[in-house]
Amino acid sequence: MPRDNMASLIQRVARQARITFRSPAGPAFGENLHRLQQLLDEVRAEDLHLAPRGPSAAAAAAGGGPPWAGVVPPVSYMHICETESFSMGVFLLRSGACIPLHDHPGMNGMLKVLYGTLRIACMDTLPAGAAAVPPPPAAGSGPCLRALFRSRQHYTPASPPCLLSPHTDNLHQIDAVDGPAAFLDILAPPYDPQHGRDCHYYRLLEGLPADVEPPALPREVWLIETPQAADFWCGGEPYPGPRVCL
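-> structure tokens emitted (246 positions)
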């Protein structure tokens, strides 16, 4: 059974997110962000009327995915709310699904696992001219980006939220491990291509083994920007949880 305070909890998360990201450069930002992190850490799947599962078949039509019909998307999104300063929703991933390496230009973000296990790889872009070595020959003529591969960790519902800022852990890849997974996602401000906040996808140019874990990280790597992968798209599903009013 959902907890008695489920409606007030997700409502309080949204209100705190509005307070926090209304003035991200203000003197109280750090304190407000900590309070938001504490509230987000309390959220569980049952608070949002969710049970472990992957995206539904209905999300394929709703998501404007690839032309093949009747295929369940690897990822779907449940929109909860959005203002000029932040957006909040839930991502559902099929077992083995991957949200490819991507960025969040000029944005803060918070991710809280609701069920399942996610493996999240986080990277920082490095300033132009910071690279000590040229990009590998595999780069060809495409533009390259030097980055610091900071971490690759597993997150479960027992883990604290994963945080990103405009300068730290801003690029990340998210993989569902050993079954379907879902996470509550806050981005501040929301993606907005007209204001320079568009999502870009990348791939590693270097042969970093898939099983590399700390202490082999952090490590500098080369990235190249790529189009969105043909086998990745995101469908849309209705949010079943308590209504949020702002």
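The helical segments are 6-22, 29-42, 58-62.
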